[in-house]
Amino acid sequence: MYPGKAIYRIPYADTDQMGVVYYGNYLRYFEMGRSEWLVQTGYPYSRMEEKGIGLPIIEAHIDYKAPAKYEDLIRVDTKFEQLSKVRVKVSCQVYNQNDELLVEGYTIHSCFHLEKKRPIKLPICFIEHMQKNLD
Amino acid sequence: MYPGKAIYRIPYADTDQMGVVYYGNYLRYFEMGRSEWLVQTGYPYSRMEEKGIGLPIIEAHIDYKAPAKYEDLIRVDTKFEQLSKVRVKVSCQVYNQNDELLVEGYTIHSCFHLEKKRPIKLPICFIEHMQKNLD
Amino acid sequence: MYPGKAIYRIPYADTDQMGVVYYGNYLRYFEMGRSEWLVQTGYPYSRMEEKGIGLPIIEAHIDYKAPAKYEDLIRVDTKFEQLSKVRVKVSCQVYNQNDELLVEGYTIHSCFHLEKKRPIKLPICFIEHMQKNLD
Amino acid sequence: MYPGKAIYRIPYADTDQMGVVYYGNYLRYFEMGRSEWLVQTGYPYSRMEEKGIGLPIIEAHIDYKAPAKYEDLIRVDTKFEQLSKVRVKVSCQVYNQNDELLVEGYTIHSCFHLEKKRPIKLPICFIEHMQKNLD
After folding, report:
1. Interface predicted TM-score (ipTM)
2. pLDDT at C1
3. Residue range A42-98, pLDDT digits in tens
């Protein structure tokens, strides 16, 4: 129904004593959006790790519009774009079951060789994968 | 496909440096199982809270059989049973996408009046709901 | 030794399978910094809530310099400043035991009446408290 | 002041909309107790991992007596004991700043070779370390 998008029911765990989702959890939702997009478009992040490559986050930004609540069924929309030979930007929007925009933001990732522990160029096949799967 | 069961893709967030899901996260998965069962059988926990009643946990037990891993698609099977006039036991099993049992355990809940902050009897309608929805 | 600063030993829970702290946890560390600063300077956040006032987050930004690791003893430096009659900005830096800057960022908070569920002006006594406790 | 014990200020992050600490967080507090005990008695868990050995959890049990609350300063008391040549039991109690027992429980760990991915005997030096540091 929502190809490439993460769908998630908010558990009690994610709320805080203000009665809404704790602000720190949205970075987890952003990651669920990225992971699900990669799995569903056919380039799971685990495959990248098997090649010895990671995409650690170097910057994150979040704008909070309205709070998600317990039992809400949220949806994370995700968009990957290449910033440079070694950088990727991922934009995320979190919506509730009424299609209300709750939170939006982005993460910036560097491409990293996990064993050598230093930056490397993004794999060509991943750049092509991002271009092919633009909405 | 799995009515009354929570389905969840393991995010990177839930792993630890041993490369598998951190042991503390399964209590969250148990709760996702309970919440989803209650929503899908038509007695959402939020409705109970609106009546001023909560089901705080007084005991939890977990047996770990095999670890869940990043990108696994887990399923939580959940069974509610009445223990006494004021106690409920919820049993949970967590399976991966290969139907392998990873973790099982239970939580015991007391019925609690949220405003008066003291135990009360389980609502008759909730007892009937549990009985009606036994597998 | 570090008045007004949160000190925290990184548990296994906070790591992920890349072997470092998961990026989403730093917003929790920022909050630990804010909470500890408020407690230690004598204006605990719980007291604000007792007055019916909250400081929900409307924006967050994080720059990741170097990863925190398991067993690291981190320190969070925190600085409150008034942005407007209804806005507060809190800047945070996270250091490890070698005084290496790992992460820095900020959160922006609006002042909110918890019961009426609408913005209100920052309490004068809180504005004075922030001014009095500038480093 | 409390040698070998973890001290921790409850952040907002750990509360849920019932206004107390979410039940799943106590397994993290148990781990903070274990990690801190090991660091302070001079046998950090990271050193064990460097030897290629892990102590994954195979069972956990928690009894909840009273809830921890936001801004509480909790203390985790931890006791290691050998169950067999390949098993360790760790008992934990969580107290608040008024020395009130909030939660108690235990975890059972198997000794595991991280690379060969199979159980091995507990290292003699670790058995001796546990015996030497009994309260």
Report:
1. 0.96
2. 62
3. 999 999 999 999 999 999 999 999 999 999 999 999 999 999 999 999 999 999 999
Distance, CA of B106 to CA of B83 (rounded, Å): 13
Give me the residue from D25, D63, D67 closest to B59, CB to CB.
D63
Q: Å from A84 to nearest chain D CA?
A: 35
Please, what is the end-to-end C-alpha distance for chain B in angstroms? 15
Catalytic residue numbers of D read: 16
Provide the mean pLDDT of chain B: 96
Cα–Cα dist A48/A109, whole Å:
14
The Cα D61–Cα B113 span in angstroms is 26
Q: How far apart are CA C123 and CA C51, in angstroms?
A: 10
Q: How far is B95 from chain A (nearest CA, A)?
A: 18
* Model confidence, pTM: 0.97
Select the residue from A18, A27, A32, A106 to test the C interface by mutation, using most C Cβ atoms within 10 A: A27
Looking at residue B135, what is its pLDDT? 67
**CB under 8 Å to A127, separation ≥6 — which residues?**
A82
Contacts of A112 in chain C (CB under 8 A): none
The three-state secondary structure class of B132 is helix
User: What is the model's pLDDT at position D135?
Assistant: 66
May I ask the CATH architecture of the domain A6-132? Roll (3.10)
pLDDT of residue B102 exceeding 80, the answer is yes
Nearest-angstrom CA–CA distance, D82 and D108: 10
Domain boundaries, chain B: 6-132
Tokens standing for C126? 């809180």
- Quick check: C64 and A56 CB within 8 A? yes
